[in-house]
Amino acid sequence: MSEAVTPRHARHTAGLMRTIYLPRTADALAFAMSTYGIPLLVLATTRSAALTGAAFALEWIPRLAAFGWAGSIVDRRGAAVVFHLASLGRALALAAGAVLLHLHPSGTVASATVMVLAATTGVLTEFSYVATETAGAAAGRRAGARAHRVQAVLLGIDQTATLAGPALAGLLLLAGPPPMLAVITVLSLLALRTPPSPVTPARAPKGKSGAGLLTGWRTIRSLPALGWLVTGLTLSNLATGLLQAAGPVIVVQHFGQSTTAVGLLWSAAAAATLVAVTVCRFSLDRLSLWPVGAACAALASLACLAAAQAPDYLSYLVLVAVLMAADGGMTVVLRTLRSRLIPPEQFGSTLSATILILLLPFPVAGVLTALTPPDALGHVITACAALQAIGLFYAFARLRTDPALRT
Q1: For the chain, what percent of residues have pLDDT higher than 70?
Q2: Alpha-carbon torsion (351, 384, 304, 272), positive or negative
Q3: What's the mean pLDDT in 313-326?
Q4: Tell me: the pLDDT tens digits for 143-159?
Q5: Mutual orientation of helices 147-175 and 22-46 as an angle, nearest 10°?
Q6: Is the pTM of this model over 0.85?
Q7: Which residue from 95, 148, 243, 395 puts its CA 20 to 30 A from 234's CA?
Q8: Of all residues in the chain, what percent are helix, strand and coil, respectively (each to 5)?
Q9: CA 403 to chain centre
């Protein structure tokens, strides 16, 4: 019996690698480099905390606007088509940006180019992300009781990209903006060389983006376990988003480190998250979703509160790494839960609504960073950390007896 099962398992793993994991790897690395590289570029050229926060907000606001379209288009056209077109569009935009920054390395043209790239790459990356998440959820459903393993691999890919992306972006920025953008362009093109996902489009009627979000919102409301978990993680994301938006300011201006140290910070956080994802994967083999998620929530709350009072760069790096590792554990719980609960024919729309809610705090964090004097950022982070702790405690208290998290 084992001789018959092993080849089938090997073929299934190879199929996941070719159609799900490899496209996700290229896309996640391009996402990480652009997300962390563009604010670094703004700070390096302007030395302005306000403009760095504004750039972070500008990166995220168009992404949020894109989700209404992304989910409904993925449901209607299929994950493979959307992923291919989004990756191609991102490659073309980055190539054009690299040329413009080579011709105009500073001044108004350079500033406008970076801001447009922040918005454009953000929108296109969210389309590709929704497509790959939809394909990953389908793979999780096919895996049955081992769905959390597929989700742990996908999150591990994301965190590996976050481990390499910021550090690589920081190093390439030393050579100038065009080389950094050229590498991200190549990564986007590499995704096109990977066979597309076999996920087929649903027979969804054509409609406006708001219709897809409304469908997703109704689905979330019909699934209380998903709704409470999303609520807690949304409040948590305000704190983590503020740490990301204010990271360049805190590390460079407050602790007196270089821009490379900013990349090292998020690479260390990603490395810690990879370890946490592995631990959560084996923990979920033995435990249900609730105890794993609750433990991660408690650890994240304590780490964020402590990070706001960190006395030096090293302690700040360690605390942020612990926070992001715990956040990664909660993300494994969220991904596993939504792959179990969301109906396949509504997954794209519900995924878009879920991610939209979860990402709303990020542009808010950018605005807070832009409006807050650098010396007062610690107080704002403390307030957001307290809100995070309250939100996660209440959410997991409500979910303690929910059967969806007890299996």
Answers
A1: 81
A2: positive
A3: 93
A4: 655 666 676 777 778 77
A5: 40
A6: no
A7: 148
A8: 90, 0, 10
A9: 28
